[in-house]
Design a protein that fits this description.
Helix content: over 70%
Transmembrane segments: 31-52, 64-89, 95-113, 120-141, 147-168, 180-200, 212-230, 242-262, 268-284
Protein name: EamA domain-containing protein
Membrane topology: Multi-pass membrane protein
Keywords: Cell membrane, Membrane, Transmembrane, Transmembrane helix
Structural class: mainly alpha
Number of domains: 1
Distance between the termini: 20 Å
InterPro entries: Diverse_Substrate_Transporter, EamA_dom, EmrE-like
Number of strands: 0
């Protein structure tokens, strides 16, 4: 249980680190993402490199699918999320992202031939209504409605990318194994991130204030590497169902720390939206297991 809580705490702090970096300096989102990837990659390589020795030759179709999944899951979702955090609160960002199971179900029905379970209509409706409540809360509190809507659309796009990653990764995990798939997808995303960086900015832009390096290093270690391994260990000891249950404290933690550290407002409408999303997500996961 302690490992599961630490994992949820680490993931919930990602948005806090990003928002703090934006306060320190007017840094481009792709710079933050590039530094995060570069700091995280050595840890994943050291742990997961042995798993790559068992990879069989991939067909062109499988290689194409792997590239698409890697770009969507670790690059697309992250860059849209980082850009969106320039415009909306960390609490709203976490609530929108946490509702990704709805999108995963929709993608599975339309593109993978999955059967839709009518029992999921109510929890999906709860999640949708909860996200709408949280969005309205940010709009009421914020000063620039057009920017908030832009942030909402960007983070929703991030959730769609992550849902794509979740929906299409299952056959590749069966083919390669979880560790090998994860590290290959991350390698694809690192290449995508660096191509994005070099196509948009000069190498000299990686020179940033020391506080930016600190924020990105903490984001890489405490909100990327350690939570992944804490989560895996938690599942080993208490099982996936309990680990998922504990992970639902993530949005609440982001709301609280966004208030304590960033000075973001917490409204009754936002809390209500968060609770609706949590109930909907837990019901969806219980119906699917």
């Amino acid at each position: 249980m302690a490992l599961a809580v630490l994992s949820a705490l680490g993931f919930s702090f990602k948005a806090i680190f990003v928002k703090q970096a934006y306060v320190v300096a007017p840094v481009e989102p792709v710079i933050l993402l590039s530094l995060r990837m570069l700091y995280s990659l050595p840890f994943f390589l050291m742990i997961s490199l042995p798993a790559l020795q068992n990879i069989k030759t991939l067909s062109l179709r499988e290689l194409f699918l792997l590239v698409c999944i890697g770009i969507a899951g670790y690059y697309g979702a992250s860059i849209l999320d980082f850009i969106g955090l320039q415009y909306i609160s960390a609490g709203l960002e976490r609530i929108i992202l946490f509702s990704y199971p709805i999108l995963t179900i929709i993608l599975g029905v339309f593109f993978l031939g999955h059967r839709f379970d009518k029992r999921l209509l109510v929890p999906m409706g709860l999640c949708t209504f909860g996200v709408v409540c949280a969005c309205i809360s940010d709009i009421q509190v914020g000063n620039n409605e057009s920017h908030i809507w832009l942030g909402i659309m960007l983070v929703t796009g991030s959730a769609i990318c992550y849902a794509f990653y979740q929906a299409f990764s299952e056959p590749m995990i069966e083919r390669l194994g979880a560790k090998a798939f994860s590290i290959l997808a991350m390698l694809v995303s690192v290449i995508a991130v660096e191509l994005h960086f070099f196509s948009q900015l000069p190498l000299s832009d990686l020179k940033q204030p020391p506080e930016i390096y600190v924020q990105c290093a903490m984001m890489a270690i405490f909100s990327t590497v350690l939570p992944v391994f804490f989560q895996s260990s938690a599942i080993k000891y208490i099982g996936a169902a309990r680990a998922v249950l504990v992970s639902t404290i993530g949005p609440a933690l982001t709301l609280v720390f966004g208030w304590l550290i960033l000075g973001e407002a917490i409204t009754l409408l936002q809390v209500s939206g968060m609770l609706l999303v949590l109930v909907g997500v837990l019901t969806i996961k219980s119906k699917r297991t």
